[in-house]
Amino acid sequence: TWAFASQIYGTVTEREALNTIAAALDSGINFFDTAPLYGTATRDGVAEEILSRGLGAERNDVIISSKFGRNATEGNLPNFHGKRARTSVEESLRRLQRDHLDVLFFHSPFSADEIHDEVWEALNQLKGEGKIRFVGHSISKFEDTQQMARDWAAERRIDVIQVVYSLMNREARQLIRDLGRENLGIVARESLANGFLSGTITRDTVFPPASLNARYSREEIAARVDYTERLHFLMRGDIDTLPQAAMRWVLDHAEISLVLSGASKPDEILNCAAASEAAPYAAEEMQQANDIHTRDFQAA
Fold this sequence. Notes:
Blueprint (H helix, E strand, L loop, with lengths): L13 H13 L4 E3 L12 H10 L7 E6 L13 H15 L4 E7 L10 H11 L3 E7 L3 H13 L5 E5 L8 H9 L3 E5 L28 H12 L12 H10 L6 E2 L6 H8 L9 H9 L9
Parallel strand pairs: 1-2, 2-3, 3-4, 4-5, 5-6, 6-7
């Protein structure tokens, strides 16, 4: 739901967002990820409010994850105190019109120094009160923070991680293998590589100034497009678009519990959802995808 409350991929109207949620429900999707950070400088959790409206009477029949520790109204500054965990959860529940969150993620801590010890007691209390079911770590700055996830998993402080994983960025592969063996839930995100695996970006694409991809040089855009073209062999039979291929490839990793689409339009969510019905890739196809991968492209 990130795209519903920001300009990261361009403007998304509320009607488009609501139609996308409806399409997701119609296609059988039952997991929705959101956050207080997905808002504006004057209003946290805009995406949570839109999600609640879009789900309507079905809001209690789906699985919802949200996050804490970063707020739009505070300029995305880290706040991983126990008090913030509680107020964040209670505000999210009010916006979502729910009595519990299925997963509460730490929202992208950049170092262990940002985590205050009393937060764990607060999270345990929230679990005991039934306001959250599971605790997770949404990982950013992978090289700097993957050890946090490993330590927390070993201590059984977290139940799930959310991590960037795509055909274009596989830096988390070993972590996924290792924590998968520990039976942690693993949520893959940015699996369309912020749109570069959407099949719609060309070497000549010009991104809106406020959008996420506007930071890339023409050379970087060309390199990314060149790489995606080498992946076209993955489109075959019941997989006829690049987004379907990208999603199917992620789903074919046994340790991964689910993959987030990042969709902002109904046709995008339907396209991604079709991948779940496609046949898995053969070992030879997976190996070919591995053979051409020589670089991890920077994640958001």
